[in-house]
Amino acid sequence: MRIPRPARAGALLGLAALLAACAPAQTDTPGSGADEMEGTLRVWLFSEVDQEPKEQVVDEAVAEFEADHEGVTVDVQYIPIDTRAERFQGAFNDPSSAPDVAEYGNTDLAGYVEAGGFADIGAELAEWEDHGDISDDVAATAQVDGGTYGVPWFLGVRALYYRTDVFDDLGIDIPETLEEVVEAGRAVREDDPDMLGISTGGAYTYGFLPFVWANGGDIAEADGESHTAAIDSEDAKAGLELYAEILSEDVCPPQTCAQMTGNESVQNFIAGEAAMTIGGNFNLNAVQDSDVAEDTAVVPLPGAEPDSIAPAFAGGNNLGVLAGTDHRTLSVEFVKLLSGKKYQQQMYEAMGNLPTLSSVQSDVAATDEEVAPFIETLDAGTRFVPVTGAWAGIDAEGVLPTMVQRVATGDASVDQAAQEAAASLDDAFTGE
């Protein structure tokens, strides 16, 4: 079936390589502890490759907010994603350069909370009806150590893209388990050695993790604010072993796939070089624009057992209130407006952003069958990375990809690679 063109989503998924940039100069000096109900409300949102539709929705929300709040002006600035760390660090250190409201990537939150940068607005959100429309696992992406530091604004989750023409020609049924995904990939490559059975890489963390989660494993276990590595558990190793079967000569050869990232994995599928890939709702646009669009379908990535769905990583962006704001009440009200039902629906229509409110998800799935597999994946339950400031370093050092790649290339056994990764995780968790 043909995948229609949704607008591009800008899901932010935990980056650590950062470029320097200066925080923009501001005129007000927040941080006095006041809660002013007039003046300028400063908002930082992320810039996008195709930003105009986003701006149009935000401008409408700003106009509505200003009309309802006499004496208030909302100043929205769009900041580059790849320079966000320096900007936020500057804002945390110097409240005069800080916004009142900001969009942030959900994997960045734990580090921002450790820096004291965002306000816990859980009490205000508890009284907001729409907040109760967010599932617990999605709401958790804005929570750290019992505090709630914003509202999940949109999500990015992954599902299984596959070539209907290839499957039909070979008589392959849609896989109902992860084992069957591997078997289908093996059958494709046996028939056509020039095609990848499934394009997914050793450096594709969020393609690999569903295999761990579906088998009952996890990256780490939390005990209060402390974490202990669990990637070397028997369940986690079962997921690693199955994923390593993909990174083999008879499915996706390690010389091609061991170093491959998520973007590269999807690009191979778009180029017609693979029968399957694990791609996000944010990849729909690129697939629709490709030569394989007419022969592509999407289903939830199956789990370890039939009639199950592998838990997907709940990537996405949140809206939060800076701790140093002098406009706390106004800031929370603006967050509620922009992340509420009306504007989540409009942001989906404008940018393809997957809504976080369950009622909006249902409305979207009912009117757009192409997004239904991703909504179904959300409904089945998502997972998240360890909520700790150490995650940025773990991600930057490539602890999990290194583990996968060592197994795929034969440099280490599953047991050895998992033990090494667990040791690195524990060192990071304890600050060593």
TrEMBL record:
InterPro entries: SBP (IPR006059). GO terms for molecular function: maltose binding. Keywords: Signal, Transport. PROSITE patterns: PROKAR_LIPOPROTEIN (PS51257). The keyword Signal applies. Residues 1-25 form the signal peptide. Pfam families: SBP_bac_1. One of its GO terms (cellular component) is ATP-binding cassette (ABC) transporter complex, substrate-binding subunit-containing. GO terms for biological process: maltodextrin transmembrane transport; maltose transport. PANTHER family: MALTOSE-BINDING PERIPLASMIC PROTEIN, MALTOSE_MALTODEXTRIN-BINDING PERIPLASMIC PROTEIN. Belongs to the bacterial solute-binding protein 1 family. This is N,N'-diacetylchitobiose transport system substrate-binding protein. It comes from Spinactinospora alkalitolerans. The lineage of its organism: Bacteria, Bacillati, Actinomycetota, Actinomycetes, Streptosporangiales.
